[in-house]
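Ticket #4471: structure export looks truncated?
Reporter: QA, pipeline team
Priority: medium

Steps to reproduce: submit the single chain below to the structure queue and open the exported record.
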Amino acid sequence: SMMNVHMSAEPIRAPADAARGNQLLRDLFYFDLLEAGVWLARRGMINLSLPLGGTEYDALVGAVDNFLEQRKTLFEG
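Actual output as written to the record:
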């Protein structure tokens, strides 16, 4: 499975929509997840493969939850 994180309050329907997102917040997400031991592409792409199990999925969910909690003021207003 492949997914991509976009830091935008608006729907992403085209590449230009993604380009208008908050690139600095996306970079912060990248570095925070790296610090938590979760490796992803700096552009926000995350790949989940069959060899991954519950431990790895829990680590990803925990790292994203932690990012959202620690950085919630950046998403307000």
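Status: closed, not a bug. The export was complete when the record was re-opened. Leaving a note from the reviewer for reference: The chain has a mean pLDDT of 90.
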